[in-house]
Amino acid sequence: MKSGRLLSILLLLQTRGRVPARELADRLEVSVRTVYRDVEALSAAGVPVYAERGRHGGIELLAGFRTDVTGLTADESRALFILAAQGAHAALGLDQALGSALRKVMAALPAPYRPAAEETSRRILVDATRWKGGPRRAVDLQVLQDAVFADRRLRLRYRHSGERETRTYTVDPYGLVSKAGVWYLVADRRARPRLFRADRVRSATVLDDPVRRRPGVELTDAWEALRRQVEERTGGLDVTVRVRRERLDMFLRLNTGHLAELPDDDGTGEWVTVRLSYGVVREARQLLPYGDEVEVLSPPEVRDDLAAAAASVTRLYRPAAEDGS
Q1: Is the pLDDT of residue 1 over 60?
Q2: DSSP E strand boundaries for the chain
Q3: In this predicted model, what pLDDT tens digit does every residue of 42-95 receive, in sequence order?
Q4: I need a surface site. Which of 39, 226, 283, 312 has the fewest CB within 10 A?
């Protein structure tokens, strides 16, 4: 709807200042020509908006112009009161600010929408943490936030998974991302995107040097590239297993990240064949806890490694008398 698009342009210009026409077109999923027509419509309605063409041009509101917008729709007002990822606000120290902001929004809502918004806040809750995630190391995001908002470089002492010693990195932060309740710092190191889990940061120091981000790259761009690297990373080792049917749903749910493809299941038989992908042979040892409910069919080196690991566990728990000692 054109009226909604005009409002979106107005809000973007109020919050961002000068915005290139191409960026507005991409955000609104319309052509650049349509954006310029909308700008003309806003100008005709008395909004002091103007466009400057050229390499450094864009669309901008006259300096100092502001407008109060309270024309929220019913669905928009409900969306504001679904408190997704409440833990994220607490981790950033923004719980009180969030409550204050929502009270102000409630006061500004059109009267007919207030009951629906209040009902939504009581009836819908989004918890981004996983079941039985286990205890996690406390995370202090303050220094990371300071660097992100001050546009300064960071020096990190960081411990990678599976390593005892920490490493030191100097990075250029783009921002913080909360993924399934876990906080990550997205940053460049030597002009290449890197991902750092906040709970593995042992210390962080904000440097005096200004951040050196790659030109034109925003947090969303860097995060998307890193996310694809993680999700599309090829395992390199194809493993074929068979799973007892009564455990299939649970097995697929817990091993989604290693599935090479969805199993071709005709719904009959005691066993279902599943293809998995791992990085190295030893990684497949995570199949051991399934006991006799999962059997590796191939490759032979994975079967041999699991057999050796199972035998080692058996020896550990074998009574001393059986060892002849």
Answers
A1: no
A2: 49-52, 58-61, 152-158, 167-179, 182-189, 192-197, 201-210, 237-244, 271-278, 294-298
A3: 888 888 888 887 777 789 888 877 666 556 666 776 776 665 455 566 667 766
A4: 312
Contact between 84 and 95 under an 8 Å Cβ cutoff? The reply is no
**Paired sense of beta strands 201-210 and 58-61, if any:** unpaired
* Residues recorded for the chain: 325
The CA distance from 172 to 188, in Å, is 5
Helix, strand, coil % (nearest 5) of the chain?
45, 25, 30
183 in helix, strand or coil? strand
| 23, containing H or E segment | helix 21-28
- Provide the sign of the torsion angle of the four alpha carbons 74, 80, 84, 86, taken in this order: negative
For the entire predicted model, the pTM comes to 0.60
User: Which pairs count as long-range contacts for 100-105, CB under 8 Å and 24+ apart, including other chains?
Assistant: 105/77, 105/80
Token output for 229: 């690297």
